[in-house]
Design goal:
It is built from ten helices and nine strands. It has 250 residues and is of the alpha/beta class. It folds into two domains: 153 residues, Rossmann fold (3-Layer(aba) Sandwich), CATH 3.40.50.1220; 86 residues, 2-Layer Sandwich (SIR2/SIRT2 'Small Domain'). The strands form two sheets. It has a six-stranded parallel sheet with strand order 3-2-1-7-8-9, sandwiched between helices. A three-stranded antiparallel sheet has the order 5-4-6, with no helix packed on it. The protein binds zinc ion.
């Protein structure tokens, strides 16, 4: 017996000519990645974000930033995409999904095989010198970084910062613009594991709604946009999204 909300979601997706996904921390918590923007649950709990994760704090005290982000980097070395990531990748490969817009910096969508991923908050795959802009891959620096070293720019000696967007930094313009275009173009926005509290991700579903798109919202807890959703599923995304996909693919 398929739960009615699962059936409603799969029916909506079946009729959609253009579906876009929007994902947040909740899609990666089943993979063991802490929700690092939610104060109660996440990495923020021990730190004041402006003290560690703003661009000004980074320039003054990179060691604080790295002490804060080290547990995340350590988990990223072994974290694997879960069933929800895999479903989105499979939907894309079967032509049922155009893009994933994500608030996550963990690269798990790419690890699952998603190709068009718009990362609103950047990623940790590379790091950039805050003085001269020199960029290099993060992977070779990880062992030193995890053992407590602070990464210096090989060109000028400045601090290297992972390509995640900190407080006080502008979001990557081209990524934001592309995400807005997807929101305007889609017929269905499939929101997975986002509490929709952080801008600009919280605005994208409203942008889609204004153009007549329908929202499917799958999240463990309630969000400010629950009443805007045509289909609302409060459940573990790694369980609910595969149910929707199996019902759709049958
Ligand atoms: Zn430099």
């Amino acid at each position: 017996m398929i739960p009615p909300v699962i059936r409603q979601a799969s029916n909506l997706l079946r009729r959609s000519g253009y579906t876009v996904a929007l994902t947040g921390a909740g899609i990666s918590t089943p993979s063991g990645i802490p929700d690092f923007r939610t104060p109660a649950a996440g990495l923020w709990s021990q730190f004041d974000p402006l003290e560690v994760a703003s661009i000004w704090a980074f320039a003054e005290h990179p060691e604080r930033f790295y002490r804060w982000i080290r547990p995340l980097l350590r988990r990223l070395m072994t974290a694997q995409p879960n069933a929800a990531h895999h479903v989105l990748a499979e939907m894309e490969s079967r032509g049922a999904l155009r893009a994933v817009i994500t608030q996550n910096v963990d690269s798990l969508h790419q690890a699952a095989g998603s190709r068009r991923v718009l990362e609103l908050h950047g990623h940790t795959r590379a790091a950039t010198c805050i003085d001269c802009g020199f960029e290099q891959p993060t992977a070779p620096m990880l062992p030193a970084l995890l053992s407590g070293a602070l990464p210096r720019c090989p060109r000028c000696g400045g601090w290297l910062k992972p390509n995640v967007i900190l407080y006080g930094e502008l979001l990557p313009y081209d990524v934001l613009r592309a995400a807005q275009q997807e929101a305007l173009a889609c017929e269905v926005m499939l929101i997975v594991g986002s509490s929709l509290e952080v801008l600009p991700a919280a605005d994208l579903p409203l942008l889609a709604r204004r153009r007549g798109a329908r929202l499917i919202l799958i999240n463990q807890t309630s969000t400010p946009l629950d009443d805007q959703a045509e289909v609302l599923i409060h459940d573990d995304v790694a369980r609910a999204l595969p149910q929707v996909w199996h019902d759709l693919a049958d």
